[in-house]
Amino acid sequence: MSTQSASHTISVLVSNKPGVLVRVALVFARRGYNIDSLVVSTQQDSDFSRMTITCSGDPATLDQIIKQLFKLVDVVRAIDHTGDQVIEKELALIKVKCPPENRTQVLEIVEHFKGVTVDFGSESLVLQISGGSDKIDHVLGLLGSYGVVEMVRSGKILMTRGASTT
Amino acid sequence: MDKKIPTGAEVIIQCLIREGVEYVFGYPGGAAIPLFDALVDAPQIKFVLVRHEQGATHMADGYARATGKPGVVLVTSGPGATNTVTGILTAQMDSAPLIVLCGQTISPMLGKDAFQEADVTGITYPVVKHSYLVKKTNDLPRIMKEAFHIATTGRPGPVLLDLPKDITSGPCTAPFVDEVDLPGYETPSMPDRNELQKAANLIAKSRKPLLYIGQGAVIAGAGKALTQLAEKLGSPVVNTLLGKGVMAEDHPLHMGMLGMHGTAYANKAVLNCDLIFSIGARWDDRITGKLAEFCPNATKIHLDIDPAEFGKIIQPDASLVGDAKKGIEALIPLVGKLDSADWVKECSAWRKQYPLRYGKQGGLKAQMVLDELDKLTRGKAIITTDVGQHQMWAAQFLRSTFNRSWISSGGAGTMGFGFPAAIGAQLGCPDKPVWAIVGDGGFQMTLCELATAVLQKVPLKILIINNSYLGMVRQWQELFFDNRYSGVDMVGNPDFVKLAEAYGVKAWRIRRNGDVKRILKQAMAYNDGPCLIDAEVVKEDNVFPMVPAGAGYKDMLIERPKQKMAKPTGST
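C-alpha cells for the assembled complex are given below, as produced in the milestone run.
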C-alpha cells in the first residue's frame, strides 16, 4: 500500500457563517484532494459548526491543506485526528432485497452487529447499522450476497476521548 | 429635531472616514448608486473616477504598497465587480491590503439572474483573503471594522464586500464598532523563543550565510533591523523582485536580486552559500528554479508571518512564525559575528567578475535608458513597473534605496499593473517622484487611465520601453522554441506620443542614445501633470542573466548561448 491512498479524518471547527463550506471545499478542490465524506453540524453554541471530513491522498499535501484551512478567517481549528485516541462513528441505512426465505439469515446478521430493522416489507428490509466505518463495510460485505438495493451513509463523525476538546 | 437614521451606504462611508481613508478608486453603476450618493456628503474622501475597474484595483494596490495603508475600491455589481478580479488576484498574490466594495442587486433578486447580477462572492472566493456578502444593514459597522482589520493585519490581502442595494439603502441603527471578535483569525507577532534559539544556533555554525529578503520584510518595514543583522553577522543579502528597497541596494553587503533574472553575483552567492535565511519570502519558483537543486546542502531558515508557507515549497530547518521586523529584532541579540570574511570577499569578487552588462553598440538599449534613469534618480524615486522584459531590466538597473519605493506585480505577473499602480502611488506619496516603467504591450492594457492621471494632475512619469514586441515571450521563443515567433509582434502599436497628446499629456520620444539624458531630465523637471516618454529601443534584445524555468542555478545563462536550448521544464 502506498501512502497515496492513506485515509484521514479531519475535524474542523468553523464560525457558522455563510460560505464557510464553500471556502473549506475549495481548499481541497484546488489541491486535487477528494473528500470521501463530510458531516457538518452546529455546536451547542450555534455560532460555531463542526465539520468532520474524511479524505484520502498524500500526507504532504494534506499537511498543506490543513494549514490552508487554518488560514481561513472562519476556521477556528483544523486537526487531522488520524492515529489519535478518538471515538469514530457512522450510521448507515441499508435496503436489502429480502424474500421471506432469506429473512432469518439477514436478521441474524443485523442482530449480531446490534443493528435495527427500521422498515419491514414483504420483499425488502431497511436496516440501520451504526458504529465504526470498518464495521459498516463488513456488514455491507455480508449483505452483498442477498442483494443491496440501495444504501446511504451518514459519513464519519469523531470526538476525542477524555476531557480535552476535539 | 429628530435625528435622521443613516442608510447603510452612509454608514459605510462613515466607516471609511473612521479608518482614515483618503482616496476611493472606482466606477459607478446602478447597484452602487446609494454608495456614490453617500460620497457626496463626505468631502474628506477624494473619489478617483477611473476609466476601467481593473485600473481602480491597481491604483488602490499601488496606493497601498506605496503608503502601507489599505487601498479602497468602489464598483458596481456584475461586470463592474468582475472587472476587479485581476486586480484582486494581483493584490492577493503580493499581500497588498485592499478593500473592494461591490454593489449588488437587491437581496430578494440574488440568484435570479437580475440585471447586472453576478455571484461576485462566489467568483472571488479563491482570490480574496476574506469576503462578505452582507445580508443585514445592521451588520455593516461590524463587517467594515472586520474587513479593515483582516485586510491590514497578519499577512495583508484583499477583502471584498458584496453589498446588495437594499442593504446599502436601508436604515442602519447599529453603532460603530471598535473591536473585532474573530475567533478563527490569528495574527502571529513574535516567533517562538525556542525556534529563535534554534535558528541562532544554526546561524552560529554558518561560514557562508545569505539573507534572502522578500515582500514580508517590506510590509513589516524591517529594513533597519535587516541591515543591522547583516552587518552584525557579516552576511551578504539578496532580495526577491518584491523585496527591493527595504534594505538599500547600495549597501556593500547587498548583492541585488536573486532568481530567474537575478544578478549573476547574487545567484553565485545562492549557489554557494551554506545557510540561506528567508525573511518574508516564499521560495517562489522564479527564485528556486529546479527545486531539487536549490541550495541542497545549505541550512534553511524561514521567517514568515504566514505559517502555511512553512513546508509549502521547502522544509525549513527552523521555522520562525512572526512579523519580519520583530522576528529579526528578537534574533539580533542571540547571534554574533560569523567567521564569514572570506565568504564576503568571495561574493565581492563575483560582483566584480560578473557585473550587469549590456552592449553599447547597435541602437538604443532598454538597459542603457534605465541605467541613465538610475543615474538621475539615484534610487530616490518610487518606481512602478509592468510585467516583462522591461520589468526585469528595471529591477536590475534601478537601485531602490528606501522602503516601499519599488512596486511591481510579482506573484500574479499582471500586465497592465504598472501605470495605474503609479497613479495610486503618486496620490499616496505626492512629494516623491514616481516613475512608471512599462512595456508597449502592458501599457496598452490599461492606458485608458491616462484620462484619470490627467484629471488627478499627478506629476508621474511614464517611461515606455517600446520594442514593438511582447519581449519576454519573444525571448523564450528565440531561445527555447527555435525562433518560431508566435503572437508576439506588436505591429499596429499606436504613436504613443500622439496618443498621449490626445489625452493632454506631455510626451517625448527617444530614438537615439544621445537624446536619453536630455529627455529624461526634461521629464523630471516637468511637474504640470503626467508626462510620457516613448523610448523606441532595439526590437530584439534579451534579459540576462537567466536561469531557465525549471533549471538549476548552475545552468544560469550569463549571455546568449551559442547552442540551441532545450524547452524549459519549469512552471510557465
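The first strand of chain A starts at residue 7 and ends at 15. The longest helix of chain A spans residues 59-71. Further analysis is deferred to the final report.
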